[in-house]
Amino acid sequence: MTTSVTIDLKPTAHPLSDAERAARMTNPGFGRVFTEHMVTIRWSAGRGWYDAQLTPYASLEIDPANMTLHYAQSIFEGLKAYRHADGSVVTFRPYENARRFQASARRLAMPELPEDLFVAAVDALVKQDHAWVPGEEEQSLYLRPFMFATEVGLGVRPSNEFLFMVIASPAGAYFAGGVKPVSVWLSKEYVRAAPGGTGAAKCAGNYAASLVAQAQAAEQGCDQVVWLDANERRWIEEMGGMNLYFVQGSGKDARILTPSLTGSLLPGITRDSLLRLAADRGYATEERKISVEDWQAGNADGSISEVFACGTAAVITPVGSVKSTDASWQVGDGGAGPVTLELRKALLDIQTGGAADTHGWLHKI
Ligand code: PLP
Ligand code: COI
After folding, report:
1. How far, in Å, is the centroid of ligand 1 from the Cα of 78?
2. Taking the CA of residue 24 as centre, how many other CA atoms within 13 Å lie in the half-sphere pointing to its CB?
3. Which residues does residue 83 pair with via DSSP β-bridges, in sequence order?
4. Which GO MF terms are attached to this record (predicted)?
5. Which of 3, 193, 215, 354 has a beta carbon 3.0–4.6 Å from 349's, enabling a disulfide?
6. 98, 164 contact by CB (below 8 A)
């Protein structure tokens, strides 16, 4: 899909000084500091996409009867911009995010933003706020495109008006411990998604519904929740905001498994990239259903040597231990395994310009 909508650039008249920006970018953490600009594009049933602007970052005024506040027609994406050693800036596979955003929109009865307009909006913001793209190791500029209903009214039906936006946030490690392994809680009481539900969409409601299980994981002394399928509470789906990978065996004979896309988990772009990077390195890869029993038995007999989670925000994070209502175990030696670290480095090297981009994944801004 292509579009003739162009983004009207209205940058701030009073940009921050280099010193003020540097102060805000020190130890940015995740999602706490935002850059100086944002992109907004409106949609209405009568006009389609219109009024695309890049403006200073600012609050929005929201009517109390805004439909999003009541019925959650709201979707988002997450991708990162990286600074390379020569100072240039790239994003990673932004057209994949654009396509997933369209798929999320279809599921939530929202309009589909054309792919090139999604990418142009992200590009415009990164270009304007390029000084906010960190150059330090493990840091990047996290980009958050999102869209929500703006019509006012309490009737339960799709809104006739939407606002698409992009904001940006300099980001360090998602988990305070960096590549330190996380402990996970297998959620049997709560499920994230059911067949026919919104699990494959990146919609705000999925995250709201996850919070009580995440709180339960924390009560159990765990860092993250692992979701199981809704029907049997048996099949591993994914983690909080990340997909999961299992390493069977070791060395070059290792097999790399990830739960298949059953419709109730998010089709992660990092997940897809790792399937290819693992195959490039000669590993056998497989997308299949993996049960809790498979995991527990594979752990007990040593056949599952490593488990890790992957996603844009968290990159690759090892899983060190598992707890559920009836069992708990340590994964491998509880540390970050060699395959996990090899794939993490392979991905980060491409993203940050340390290795050749043989798949054509980088998009130069
Ligand atoms: N699963 C969920 C629920 C997520 O929120 C995310 C993050 O976007 C992922 C998986 C990983 O997806 P990606 O690799 O595209 O960031
Ligand atoms: C991402 O990795 O981009 C995510 O969206 C995960 C989380 C911050 C929601």
Report:
1. 8
2. 17
3. 89
4. branched-chain-amino-acid transaminase activity
5. 354
6. no
Which residues, listed in sequence order, are joined to residue 38 by a DSSP beta bridge? 55
As for the ipTM of the complex, it is 0.97
Dist. CA 314 → ligand 2 center (Å):
8
pLDDT of residue 175: 64
195 burial class (0-12, 13-18, 19+ CB within 10 angstroms)? Answer: exposed
Q: How far apart are CA 356 and CA 343, in angstroms?
A: 15
Kindly state the helix (H) or strand (E) to which residue 38 belongs, with its residue range: strand 37-44
Question: Per the structure block, which two tokens stand in for 225?
Answer: 């929740």
Supply the pLDDT for residue 145: 98
Q: Consecutive 10-residue runs of the chain (365 residues): their mean pLDDT?
A: 82 94 92 96 97 98 97 98 96 98 98 98 98 92 98 98 98 73 95 96 97 96 97 95 94 93 97 97 96 94 95 92 94 92 95 96 97
> Quick one: 202 exposed, middle or buried, by C-beta within 10 A (0-12, 13-18, 19+)?
buried
What's the rounded Cα separation, in Å, for the pair 202 and 105? 9
Question: Residue 162: phi, psi to the nearest 5?
Answer: -135, 155
| 287 touches 265 (CB < 8 A) | no
**What values do phi and psi take at 71, rounded to 5?**
-120, 5
Is the CA virtual torsion 97, 102, 104, 105 positive or negative?
positive
Confidence (pLDDT) at 312: 95
- The residues, ordered by sequence, that sit 6+ positions from 224 with a Cβ below 8 Å of its Cβ are 182, 183, 184, 185, 214, 217, 239, 240, 242, 309
C-alpha to C-alpha distance for 139 and 137, rounded to whole angstroms: 5
Q: Which residue has the tokens 């991905």?
A: 347
User: If we measure between CA atoms, which residue out of 299, 296, 292 comes closest to residue 233?
Assistant: 292
Residue 266 CA to ligand 1 centre (angstroms): 6
In testing the pocket of ligand 1, which one of 192, 211, 270, 271 has its CB within 8 Å of the most ligand atoms? 270
Which residue owns the Cα nearest ligand 2 atom 9? 241
User: How many Å apart are CA 260 and CA 101, to the nearest integer?
Assistant: 20
